[in-house]
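User: For a teaching handout, I'd like to show students what a predicted protein-ligand complex looks like in token form. I'll give you the sequence and the SMILES for flavin-adenine dinucleotide. Please answer with just the structure.
Assistant: Understood, here is the input followed by the structure.
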Amino acid sequence: MTESLDRRADALILNSYYEASAARPHADDPMLDGSLEADVCVIGAGFAGLSVALECRARGLSVIVLDAHRPGWGASGRNGGQTLVGFAKDEVIERQLGLEGARAAWALSVDGVKLVRERIERYAIDCDFTAGYLSVATKPKRVPDLRAWMDDASARWGYSALSWLDTDGIRTRVASERYLAGVYDPFSGHLHPLKYCLGLADAARREGALLFAHSPVIEVVRGARPVVRTATGEVRCRFVAACGNATIGNVLPAPVAARIAPIASYIVATEPLGEARANALIAGRCAVCDNNFFLDYFRISADHRVLFGGRASSTGASPSELAQQIRKRMVGVFPQISDARIEFAWGGFVDVTRNRAPDFGAIDPNYYYMQGFSGHGVALTGIAGRVVAQAMAGETDAFDLFAKLRHARFPGGPALRGPALELGMLYHRIRELL
Ligand SMILES: Cc1cc2nc3c(=O)[nH]c(=O)nc-3n(C[C@H](O)[C@H](O)[C@H](O)COP(=O)(O)OP(=O)(O)OC[C@H]3O[C@@H](n4cnc5c(N)ncnc54)[C@H](O)[C@@H]3O)c2cc1C
């Protein structure tokens, strides 16, 4: 693990609305102590790792999940909750996989949202899923981009559920002067991510997976029968699935770890606004996200708060300064709630690849990894877990499709990747303001 990143991540959930509003089990899962055997050892109990666990149990494989902290500690318990079809950069997917490949990848991404909805129902996970998602444009030059994306999604990638909203249309949906156009997707939506993640952990335990908390993996000894080691124990297994995301650090071989960088993103939650006031902000309470490089994303929670997320300038900023920066962005969108108190502010690291395409592959034929969901992990992690479990069972079509995506490394070691990317993003931010 990258210790300083881990410590920063710990500090960023001290005032999380999700931690305050989800019920964790009374006691954590035990720490791994001694030597155990399993068919599959999963590293990380976020959406990706728990999906692998559920899918492997469904195929009759015994599963042990090791988490350095506890389920939902990572991005899965902190994110914007936006549960989306598609990818962060759909054009990259088509450029690299060709039209047929892009259609197949898009179909899998739609399956990702279906899978979230199915799991909520099958395992009775109470996580406030709300259907409906709006992609919006704030700048005239971004309106044609949004339209082209919608046209490509329906004409090229086979997703015809989208509808176009012009300026008048978007203003009937979002009570803000900021937006010039939008695309509405009735199938994507949003949820309470920590409740969903804890529900998946509970389901995995019920399905017979063994979960261990506070058990950071320090080494994977590769071979015909890999050994996954922590400071206090080890798991001997047939397959390893590494799902430790941005904080997994040097457990993965350096060239694989260097394909993602951790980008901090922050969210604030207002005090409850009351049902009527909250409804007046976003008709139908769909999730909203703009199409800028530094995007804002927001939604209304089940208890009528605005949850507003985005980038803030993090260098040296204190938690309250970060909260103020995000609040300022929120009030820029909704000046009518400038009197609303901010009750919670938290953040985490988004696992970003250089080309924003997800990165999953095999380090060895029995050692898989998944990372780089680039802000689309809520739905894509679930299907990634299924695709990896299928590959373990010898069904490799979907896995091979994603494994074809080519990824470049970020320069610098683990400590430099985040800052280097932040500088690169600053350049884009400046260009965007021109
Ligand atoms: C603030 C924020 C907002 C976001 N908003 C959205 C959004 O609205 N929609 C969307 O689709 N995506 C969003 N994302 C991205 C999304 O949350 C992630 O892509 C997704 O949760 C990744 O899931 P994961 O299981 O791969 O990783 P994580 O949830 O990060 O889980 C990794 C787990 O591995 C454990 N771990 C790490 N190293 C080790 C080790 N060495 N040994 C054992 N365990 C280890 C950690 O403790 C952690 O529990 C957002 C991310 C952030 C941070």
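For the handout, you might add this sentence: The first strand starts at residue 34 and ends at 43.
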